[in-house]
Amino acid sequence: IKNIQTYYRCDDFVVNDTKLGLVQKVREHLQNLENSAFTSDRHRKRKLLENSSLNSKLLKVNGSTTALCATGLRNLGNTCFMNAILQSLSNIQQFCCYFKELPAVELRNGKTAGRRTYHTRSQGDNNVSLVEEFRKTLCALWQGSQTAFSPESLFYVVWKIMPNFRGYQQQDAHEFMRYLLDHLHLELQGGFNGVSRSVILQESSNLSASNKCCINGASTVVTAIFGGILQNEVNCLICGTESRKFDPFLDLSLDIPSQFRNKRTKNQESGPMCTLRDCLRSFTDLEELDETELYMCHKCKKKQKSTKKFWIQKLPKVLCLHLKRFHWTAYLRNKVDTYVEFPLRGLDMKCYLLEPENSGPESCLYDLVAVVVHHGSGVGSGHYTAYAAHEGRWFHFNDSTVTLTDEETVGKAKAYILFYVERQAKPGAEKL
Ligand SMILES: [Zn+2]
């Protein structure tokens, strides 16, 4: 009952900026959650008793054998965009482990503490913590104790601190991921019990090079893992003056080149197939800017035509590539359904680097760890699922259902967001 009262406080924000009809919907949903939490709790206890003697790690789902240790995420009403991102992030080991190793809020504060000292700077609200709910969700996955976890408390924090995601409409998974990472970063910068995590992180590992790639102030696990730096080079076409600017990034949004946009099927006979390399090349190629994007040249002292080029100045540990599948045409947001071929192993990023000679032989190679896929035609509709590799095996995460799959199936997916992890130099290689 105590929890429910906390949830009802959310009514304040629902009334303020969403349609009144939604309030009723939210109330009904909360009521359902309350009921289901109660019954599923009893159900879980009973199930645990039934299963305790079996201790089986395998479960039959849809006729195929699935590892029971994989945990699905319940859909709370078009929340597959969130589930697909959470499952992907949960399989990025370095990132996930950091959160799982954080002590729980109760432990951080001590049971007698009157109020939480675990501040959330970004929200200015001591009652909600995105980091804590994110931690709890990650801990619930891969436990083997249940087949599906209901991420409602995380979802309510999301509602509270990310107004764009309120309601039960379908949302954009990429947009959600950006908000989630930005908010985690901000909250982690706020520190724990007066000790800044970012300071600990910086002292414990050699992250001096990442200082430059902070999206906002001090480095956190978010920028240390996903942060890279782009060099943006602009050349005035009239006087030739070059200007350079460093842009930190957490992911790269790549266009599917226009010549591939109308291709709908993986058909080899109708010309070359679009590859991830085509998308990366079009992102880093020299581009002549439109008349509508004139650049203010300091030498000419006026707006001039120019060219633009991106170089990667620093590659991140985890390279997140977002394929721009949604495009605005007049009033409609259309989806580009082109299949884009991507490597599961050994994506070589060396040719996009500003100073490739400064990187080791293997530090530019990346292996795929997760893919988010959007099924359906529109951004406001459709369904998101994710493929992710866990201990050498590929899984398909479709909300509460998790199935074992194979590399061939993953390779055929029409990827929306790809997560690549930097390949570690082989142990012993440094000694030579
Ligand atoms: Zn100029």
From TrEMBL:
Protein name: Ubiquitin carboxyl-terminal hydrolase
Family the entry assigns: Belongs to the peptidase C19 family.
Reactions this protein catalyses: Thiol-dependent hydrolysis of ester, thioester, amide, peptide and isopeptide bonds formed by the C-terminal Gly of ubiquitin (a 76-residue protein attached to proteins as an intracellular targeting signal)
UniProt entry keywords in alphabetical sequence: Hydrolase, Protease, Thiol protease, Ubl conjugation pathway
GO cellular component, one term: nucleus
Enzyme class: hydrolase
Biological-process GO terms, alphabetical: protein deubiquitination; proteolysis
Domain USP: residue ranges: 71-423
One Gene Ontology molecular-function label: cysteine-type deubiquitinase activity
Pfam families associated with the record: UCH
PROSITE patterns: USP_1 (PS00972), USP_2 (PS00973), USP_3 (PS50235)
Entry keyword Protease: yes
SUPFAM superfamilies cross-referenced by the UniProt entry: Cysteine proteinases
Keyword Hydrolase: yes
